[in-house]
Amino acid sequence: MSTERNKMIKSLKEIFIPELRNRSFKGSFPHFRKTENGKTNLLTFQFDRNGGGFIIELANWNEPEFKTHWGKIIKLNKLTAHDLNERQRIYPNTLTEENGKDSWFRYDRKRILSFGNDYDKLSKRVIERIPIMEKYWNEILTE
Length: 143
Fold this sequence. Notes:
Layout: H1 3-15, H2 17-22, E1 26-28, E2 31-36, E3 39-47, E4 53-61, E5 65-67, E6 73-75, E7 88-90, E8 105-106, H3 118-128, H4 130-142
Antiparallel strand pairs: 1-2, 2-3, 3-4, 4-7, 4-8, 5-6
Helix pairs in contact: 1-3
């Protein structure tokens, strides 16, 4: 893993993950889940395989367990967003992947004349997207 990715993960763990914990999410990086009233909200960080960026994937599950198409049972405390086919991606500035991986949360682009820690600034951008995450979890679960 690159030094930059490690710095980004450290920042997310210090700044964003406490916000998830305050919302009753459990799990460990990169997979988190919250199960209440038979409904499970999932959040997974997916990093660019070429480095320098990530997105967040959300999913929901309304059953007591998940069965894969090949018959494997996954308990809710191990279920991740990647296990489900229907997911929502969260981007820093848009609701869609308009420009490919350029739409992702990018930490590989240093800002000229930028003050402060760019990793922490990006982690705070993730916090700003929480209302969109909550809207997804709530709308999908009430249908």
